Amino acid sequence: MTLSELKELESTSVMSSYARLPVEFVRGEGARLWDEQGNEYLDFLCGISVTNLGHCHPRVVAAVREQVGRLMHTSNLFYTEPGMRLAARLSAASLGGKVFFCNSGAEANEAAIKLVRKARRGGDLVVVHGAFHGRTYGALSATPQEAKQAPFAPLVPGFRVVAPEPGALTAAVDERTAAVFLEPVQGESGVNPLSDELLQAARAACDAHGAALVFDEVQTGMGRTGSLWAYEQTGVVPDAITVAKALGGGLPIGALITGPRLADVFVPGDHGSTFAAGPVVAAAALAALEVTDDPALLARVIDLGHTLAAGLQRLPHVSSVRGRGLMLACELDVPAGDLVRHALLEQRLVLNATGPATVRLLPPLTIGHDEVEEALTRLSAALDAAKDK
Predict the structure, then answer these.
(1) Which of 70, 165, 271, 289 has the fewest Cβ atoms within 10 Å of its own Cβ atom?
(2) Confidence of residue 1 (pLDDT cuts 50, 70, 90)
(3) Do both 315 and 277 map to the same domain?
(4) Domain final residue, candidates 292, 319, 347
């Protein structure tokens, strides 16, 4: 089908919840995408940090092909090996507790909200300004952004919002607090790392009042910041983390991973998910986890992150750069939306605007130095063109 035919189908058949850019991608490999006309693009968005290993990583593809021809679904009423192995692997690679599987980051955060409120019945949850935890009702209630929340009020009660400052957070936590929810690096609000001092204050406050500390690692997890989980770089160990996005190597899966303290809060019937950790997606996740949890790969993420950040800082019209590893954003003196559109259509570079002047870059962790330099060249040309308009 042509792009115009797809647009027509969208206008008549698809709810208007996305503002799509006018490109149809039909194939991907590594850091490259191709449209229906055969044009090649350099992907520095990774489906919003989903294809962290690049498109169609051969080990993920092989695991999916082998499993999909053998068994696709049975439900969680029965045992299948991939899901059990994946839970053990995730626990061993993180907090040492237990895992609840689901299908997305928002669902993982919903599970975490239920978990901590069962652990402390009726307790409040403390979140910080700028957070994004998802669009389902509990996750949305934990996302203090007026534009996202206002059309869907009333929301789930019991969420307390504070400034992302150690003193404000410490003052907000008391004996009524079930949990503090934090992203180590706020992604959707523009790649804003929370300070180690804030994370340490959250840990101390939770310990003082018996509350749980939950890190939303949906975007920061699976190697994005240069360690398997971002919390490993902070010196702060949470009681639970939520993960999704890159966990499935491109297929949909989410997980709530606990430490020992919260491992046995749920009992049969407390929560569930029909498709969670089905054999195919669990096999994909096992393959993606094995590739990602490699010290050499993670070291390259940090090295290439420094290279990309330094290159961005040298570009025209870039006022500042922030982030960790290969999770970066830059502030511009030109409109970010115009820049992203021009970069896509004229320079064949896939980026994302998270604010009026903010561009987010989430390239594959497997990206090469040459591809980083190529992206910087394309972005520089797009910036010059955007400024001239």
Answers:
(1) 70
(2) confident
(3) no
(4) 292
Domain boundary among 292, 309, 330: 292
Contact 321, 328 (CB under 8 A): yes
Phi, psi of 360 (to 5 degrees): -105, 140
Mark residue 271 as left, alpha or beta (left: phi above 0; alpha: psi -120 to 50; beta: remaining): beta
pLDDT value at residue 74: 96
The answer to whether residue 389 scores a pLDDT higher than 90 is no
Q: How many whole angstroms separate alpha carbon 324 and alpha carbon 327? A: 5
186 and 269 housed in the same domain: yes
Residue 336 CB partners (closer than 8 Å, separation 6+): 353, 354, 355, 356, 357, 358, 359
Letter for the amino acid at 387?
A: K
The pLDDT tens digits of the residues spanning 28-49 come to: 999 999 999 999 999 999 999 9
Do residues 384 and 44 touch, judged by C-beta distance below 8 A? no
353 lies in some domain: yes
Determine the structural domain holding residue 210 and report its residue range: 71-292
191: which residues sit within 8 A by CB, 6+ positions away?
185, 322, 323, 327, 328, 329, 354, 358, 360
Q: Would the pLDDT of 388 be above 90?
A: no
